[in-house]
Structures
1.
Amino acid sequence: MTIGALPQDVRSAPPEHAAERESIVGFLDFQRDTVIWKSTGLSDADAARALLPSPTTVSGLIQHLTDVERSWFRTDMEGEVGVPERRTPEDRDGAFRITADTSLDDLIADYRAACDESRAVVARHQLDDRCALHEHRYTLRWIMLHMIEETARHAGHIDILRELLDGAIGE
C-alpha cells in the first residue's frame, strides 16, 4: 500500500447558530462535501477496486448516493417521472455496479449535479411540505434528515475504503 494524502479540506462547516432549515441544509452539505473530499485524488482503478465481498467501492458509493439524491428529492418529493436510477427490482445492487471505463471525476461531477438538483427542490418547498409519493407520509424535513444519515453513513464507508486503498486518513 502506498500512503496517499487527502486533498486540502475545503468543506464548509455547518452553521453553529442558525435556524432549523439552515442547520439541516448546512449539515447535509457538509456530508456531501465529505463524500467528495474523501474520494478526491484516488485513481479510477482504486476508486473501483472491490475490497469487500459486496460490490461496495468508492465509485459505487458515489454512484449510489447520486441515485439516492435524485430518487428522494426529484422522484419522491416532487413526483417527477422518469428520473434515471441504476437500481432495479431485478438488480438491487445496480447503483453500485461500476464498469472498467467508469471515471471517478465523472461520477463526482454527476454527484455534484444531483446535489444541485436536490438543492433546487429544497428551495421550492417548506420543511413541512409532504412528498408526492409514499402516501405523502414523508415531509421535506424527514427526507433531508434521512439524507444526512444516508450520506454520513456512506461517507464513513468511503473513509474506511480510502484508508484501506492508500492509507490516507483525515477527519
Note: The chain has one domain: 43-166.
2.
Amino acid sequence: MSDVAPIAVAMSGGVDSSVVAGLLKRQGEPVVGLTMQLWNQRRLPEVSSDAATGRCCSLDDVYDARYVAQTLGIPYYVVNFEDRFEQHVVKPFVADYVAGKTPIPCTLCNNFIKFDQFMEMADGIGAEKIATGHYAQIRLDEATGRWQLLRSADATKDQTYFLWGLTQEQLARTMFPLGGMVKSDVRQLAIDLGLPVAEKPDSQEICFVPNGDYAAFIDAYFKEQGITTDVTSGNIVDREGKKLGEHAGVHHFTVGQRRGLNVAMGEPLYVIQTNPATREILVGSGEALMKKRFVVGEINWISLGVPTEPLRAEVRIRNRHQPAMATIYPKANPSGAEVEFDVAQRAVTPGQAAVFYQGEVVVGGGWIEREV
C-alpha cells in the first residue's frame, strides 16, 4: 500500500468534480472520492421533484458519482451531512428570508460544510489535501506567506463570489485543479477520460430548492415545522407610507424584485426594502434602487490580511454583478467595514455578499448588512 497520503475529492456527480477525480488519477495521485449527502430530496413533497436536472446533490447525482468512481477504479464513500446541512444552511436560509434578507446558501454550504466538515472527514481517511471542481485558483504569496484566492481563468464560470469565507488553513489544504481551465476544455477532458457524465448538464438551482421557488420552499418548510405563514404577511407601501396593497409574506420578496407585487401604478415599481418588524414591503421607482454606500459585516480578509487604512478595490454585490470600483473603509472591528462605490449601483441587498477584488486577487468578502 502506498505511503503517500490520498487526496479527498468532493464528488457531486457532475462533470467538473468528476474531471477533477479523473485528472488527479491520471497524474498518478492516490484519490478517494467522497460524496456529501446534504438534503433528502423526497422531503417537502409540495416542492420536491423526481427530476434531477438543474440541481445538485440529488439521488441521481450520488449514483453518477459512484459510477464515475467505479469507472476510474478509485475508492468511494457517501457521507451523510444532512443534520449539519439543515442546521447551518437551511435554517439560516429560512431565517434570513423572514428577517428581510436575501441569503446565499451556497456560501454557507462552502463555509460550514464543504470546506469545514468535509476536511474533518478527509482527516478521517488520512487525506492531507482536498480537491473540488470549483472554478477558482489558489497561490502562496511568498512575500507575505499568505495563501491567496484568485479568480478562475474562465470568467464566465468564476466561483470566487461564493468562496470568500475560506480560511488560510483551508486554502493551504485545498486544490482547485480546474481553476486554470475553461469549461469547454473541461468537457473535452471528460470525454478523453471516458467519464460517463461527460455530457451531463451543469446544475443551476440550489440543491434543496429544486424548482427554484424559494418562497414556496419556505412556505412548505413552515408547514412541516408547524409555523403559520401569516406571521410574515403584511402591507405593500410607497415611500410616503401609503398602502398600495397586501402581501402573503416578506419572504416572497427581495430588493430589486418587480414581479409578484400585483400593484397597478403609472410606472414600474420595484421592492426597495423589506421590513420584517412592521411586515411592510417598501416599493418605489428603479432610480430609488441606486445606492452608493453600505455596511458590510463578518468580513474575512483573505489574501492581504486585515487593512488599517482605506483601500481601493472592485466590489461585487451579487454573483452576476459586474464588479465596480469602490473605497472600503475598515472599522475598528476588523470584521466590519463601510463600502462606498464611485458610481451608485443597483439593488444593494442585505444578506447578499460583498466580495472585494484587486485585479485577479480576492482581497476579502463579507455580508451586506444595510445601506448608509
Note: The first strand starts at residue 7 and ends at 10.
3.
Amino acid sequence: MIMKPLEIEHLRYSYDGRFNVVEDVSLTVEQGAIVGLIGPNGSGKSTLIKNTFDLLRLQSGSIRLSGHEHTSPEAMKQAIYLASNDYLPEFLSAREYVALMAKLFEVNVDHAKAAELFTMFSMEGRYDHLIENYSHGMRKKTQLVSALLMRRPLTVIDETLNGIDLEALYLAEKEFRRIRDEGRSIVLCTHDFSLLERLADHIVFLDHGQMVFDDPTADLVAEHGSLATMVFEYLESDVRCP
C-alpha cells in the first residue's frame, strides 16, 4: 500500500477559541506531486502548515505524514519544513548545520555533494563559514540546500524562495522537478503564480480558512487563463468566503 506523503482531514484551528482561522479543511498530497498552496494573507496557510509539523497543538481533525500520526517520531522523519523566515543557528557553519539536520532525520549526508550544491548556488567556498556571516539570500539558499540533501518524502516550502536571485531560483526549479521525478512530493506556499504554473501539478487555494479550490493546475489555467486571473476574479466576486 502506497502511503500518501500528507493527509489532512477536517482540520479546524482557533487562536482564541471562538473564531476558526482554519475551518474544516481536508486535503491530500499525492506521491510524486508538487502542490501549490495559495491564498491571501490571513487565509490560514501558515496555520495549516504549523499544525502539520506539530508547531501548533492539533485541536480538531487528523494529520498523517506517510501514514504516520503527525506527532509521532516516525512522522517527524518524513517531512521537512522550510519556513518563510531565515532563522538559522548563527553559531554553526553550514557544514555543522547540515550535519545536525542529517542527524535529526537519520540521513547519511554527503558533504561533498553539499559543497557542490553551495557552488551551484553561487556560494562557493562558504560551506565552512559561520552562518552569522551570511546574507539573507545565502541563508535562504542554505535552507534550500539542506532540504535538497535530506530528500524527505515531503518538503514544505513557505515563501523560502523570496529573496534568492534568479539563477538560484532557476536551479531550485530544476531540483524540485528531480525530487518529483524521484516520487517525492513538495508543497509550495507562494504568491508567485507564474512559478506555480511552471511547476505545480495541483493547486490548493484557501480563503478565510476555507477551501476555495483544490484542482489540477492545468484545469484552473484552462478555465481562467492564468492562476493570477483566477485569484483576482475570486477576490472581486460576491462568492468570497465571509
Note: The CA atoms of residues 19 and 185 lie 32 Å apart.
4.
Amino acid sequence: MEIYLAQSIGLVAFAVNLYACLNTDERKFKCVIVAGCLLWAVHNSMLGAEMAATLSVITAFRTFLSLNPANRRHAGPLLFLYLVLAMGEKESVYDWLPVCATFTGTVALFYLRGVALRIVHCLGAPLWILHDLHYGSLAGVLSQTTMLLLTAYTIARMLGLIAPGQRAPAEPGAT
C-alpha cells in the first residue's frame, strides 16, 4: 500500500514539475520548482532513496535562495555541501547521480538566466532518469523525460520559434 502512496506523491510532484517547465517567467519557474522539490523529497524517502530525499530538501532551499540575486554568495557553500554529502555516500553509484544533477542545477539557478538557465538545468535530467530507474520511481522517470520535452518546447517559445498556443502546421492534403 505504501508503494502506491509513494508513486501517487511522485505523480503529484510530476504535475508540479510540468507546470514549472511551461513557465517562461523565471520567478514563477523557481517558486514552482521549490514545491516540486519538497514533494520529490517525500516520494524518494518513501522509496528508500534517502540521498535523493535529502538532496531534494536542500534543492528546495537552494532554489528558494536563488530567487534573490544577492544570494548568489550561497552557491559556493551549497556546491560544497553537495560534494560533502556525495563523499559520505558509499552505498551505490546511483546515489551519486542526483548529486551531479543538483550540482549542475545549482550553477544554472544562481548564475544563468533565460534559455541558458533552462538548458543547463536540464543537463541533470538524464542522471535523475538513471537514478529513478534504479530505485523504481516510475513518476520520476516520467517526470524527467517529460520535463526535457516541455523545456525544449518552452525554450523554442522563448526564442520565438513557436508562438504560444501555436500548433504544428498540417500536412498538405490532410483533411
Note: The chain is about 75% helix and 0% strand.
